[in-house]
Every structure is written in C-alpha cells, then in structure tokens.
Design goal:
The protein is mostly helical and 350 residues long. It is built from 23 helices and no strands. Among the domains are: 1-83, no CATH class; 93-138, no CATH class; 174-256. The protein has helices at 2-7, 11-20, 27-40, 43-54, 58-61, 64-77, 80-89, 95-107, 112-123, 130-143, 146-153, 158-161, 164-176, 180-189, 195-207, 211-220, 228-241, 244-253, 259-271, 275-286, 293-305, 309-322, 327-343. PPR repeats lie at residues 94-128, 194-224.
C-alpha cells in the first residue's frame, strides 16, 4: 500500500500509513519511505526520514538502491554533511551512489565538489553512465569554468555525447560558459530536434546577448514545437538585447498569454523604459486575474534603472496596497527605492 501511494504521488498518505503499520522493514520499504520523504521535503518528512535512517541496519547501507534514496533524501533536505556521511559509510559504491551525491551537490550550490567525486570515480575505475555524465555537465554549467567544461567533455564517450539528453545538457553548458560556437556545433549535430533542443539553443543565444540570433532560431522552429518556455526564452532574449519591435511582434503572435509570458513582456518593456505600455499590460491582466507582484517588481526595477523616482514611488505604493503581506518583495522594493534616491543625491529620502 505504501508503494502504491508513492507511485501515485500521494506522499502524505504514504507516510500516514507507514506510521500506522508495525512491520519489520526491508530494504524496499526503506527505499520507498526515503523517496516519499524526499518528495515532500517538509518538517514532518525530515523528522520521519532522519529517524528511519538512524535505525536502518548496517547491511542495508551497502544496498546501493536504498543508500542512493537516503542520500537523495538528505540532499533535498539540504543536509549535505549527513549525505556525505552516508556516502562514506558505504563499502561498495556503484555509479548511481556517486550520481546521487553529485546531484545533491548541484542542488545545494556546491557543484565544485562534483569534480573531486569524479576523480574518485576514475581512481576506482567506476564508469559513469549517461545520468552521471549529465550531472557532471550540470556541474560544469554552474561552475562557468571553460577549461573544466572542456576537461569533462573530452572524457565523455561518443555514444553518450550523441544522446539527445546529453546534447541538450551540452548546449546549455556551453551557452552558460560563453562558448556559443561550441553550443552551435552541438546543436547542429542533433538529428531530431525537439522543443527542448531548440529552447536550449535559444536560451544560449539569450545568455550571450545574441537576441537577433535567438529570434532567427525561434522563427526557424516549427510552430508545433513552440511551447510556453520557448516563448519566454525568446522574449527574454529580446528584452536583454533591446529588440523592442521583435518582442512586440512575437508577443502579439502568442494566442495564449500566460502570467509568465505577460510578466516577461512587462520586464522587456520596463527595461526599455516603455512604462506606459508596461502598465497597460498589467492593467489589462488584472481585469481578469489576481495581481502579480513579479510584474510590479519588473516595473519598479525598470523605473530604478531610469532613475524615475516619481514613478518608483507610485509603483511601490501600489505594491503595498495590493501585497501588504509580501514582506520579502516589499523589502526588495525599499532597497530599489533607496538606490534611486541615492543615485539622484536625495540622501534624506534614501
């Protein structure tokens, strides 16, 4: 029953049942409950997961599947040290164990540790599979170190490099590291390009300030492959490259304008100081939807960049009225206002 609940993503019910039953636990049960706790990642799940791990028999620690689940759970809790202790306690480690640890480092902003773990794998002749290679590529993306990226890529077997998931990860990696030509080489090698492939390349162009190329690729992309994310990516590319006409054209072509798409367009207009148009978009959106604080933050950020103190004050007052309990966003708004006043020499207001 517990397995059934987890399989149907009913994680709270899985834990309810687990706490009610009184049976001898086997490695499968440990794995299932660890997975449920990892998915929930709330206070209750942390308490249950850590308590269960503390009483898990030593022989189960050498079950790679169970230990992988335990490491994944702890990493999702943000408890890197405990995950590392579990990892070190395992006598015979498979590639999946190393993958779980490296993935956890990526999740917790400690990607640099992945490279040390990779060297340990090499020393012990443990061969990464596609999953581990993609995790390493993800670590390279976060590191932004071009030499580290090339070092890892040089060791990835061709049969792995030719897999679509790896190619997408490589496009993303090269784009984030500023090597757009290498991203294009990988993109051109992809035989059956899907939505994610196109979007990864559009985003790579956007990250490198190549808005025109991003728009051109978006135009080449078959209509049936354009999804919500690809539309946001190309609008972002236009925003950062100052391509107002292209952004307007693409935005007007979109029939289903979601909150995220409208927010991206508001950000684009605000960056280019088209405040009346941005405010009109927000007003139109609010006629049928709940106000979005992200839209107002984009507008306020644009007003800050334009050093427009009057507009900034109006936006901030509107935010306080609409979102009185959004303490973090309001605090960020105060900082933006203070920056504007300081830049204008209005130190008393700041």
């Amino acid at each position: 029953m517990v397995k059934g609940y987890v399989g149907n993503e009913m994680f709270e019910k899985a834990l309810d049942l687990f706490e009610q039953i009184d049976i001898e636990l086997d490695d499968v049960t440990y794995t299932i409950v660890f997975n449920a706790c990892a998915k929930l990642c709330n206070d209750r799940a942390m308490k249950i997961g850590k308590k269960l791990l503390a009483k898990m028999p030593e022989n189960y620690r050498n079950n790679n599947i169970t230990s992988t689940s335990a490491i994944d759970m702890l990493m999702k809790f943000g408890d890197v040290e405990s995950a590392e202790r579990v990892f070190r306690s395992i006598k015979a480690k498979g590639a999946d164990i190393y993958g779980a640890l490296m993935n956890g480092y990526n999740l917790n902003g400690e990607s640099w540790k992945c490279f040390k773990i990779f060297e340990e794998m090499k020393e012990k002749d443990i061969i990464p599979d596609e999953i581990e290679w993609n995790i390493l590529i993800g670590a390279c993306s976060k590191s932004g170190m071009l030499h580290q990226c090339q070092y890892i890529v040089n060791q990835i077997p061709w049969n792995i490099q030719n897999k679509i998931r790896t190619q997408i990860a490589l496009i993303d990696m090269w784009g984030k590291c500023g090597s757009i030509e290498k991203a294009k080489i990988v993109f051109n090698l992809v035989v059956d390009r899907d939505t994610i492939t196109y979007t990864a390349m559009i985003n790579a162009f956007a990250l490198n300030g190549m808005g025109t190329q991003a728009v051109e690729l978006y135009r080449e992309m078959p209509n049936n492959l354009r999804d919500h994310v690809s539309k946001i990516c190309v609008l972002n590319a236009c925003s950062h490259a100052g391509l107002l006409h292209e952004a307007r054209t693409i935005f007007n072509e979109i029939s289903l304008k979601t909150e995220s798409i409208i927010t991206t367009m508001v950000d684009c207009l605000s960056r280019l100081f088209m405040f009346d148009e941005a405010q009109q978009l927000i007003e139109d959106y609010e006629k049928t939807n709940t106000p979005s604080i992200v839209m107002y933050m984009s507008l306020l950020s644009g007003a800050r960049n334009n050093r427009n103190s009057n507009l900034s004050e109006k936006i901030y007052k509107r935010m306080k009225t609409l979102f009185p309990n959004a303490k973090e966003s309001l605090a960020a708004g105060v900082v933006l206002l203070s920056n504007i006043y300081s830049s204008l020499g209005k130190h008393e207001e700041a």
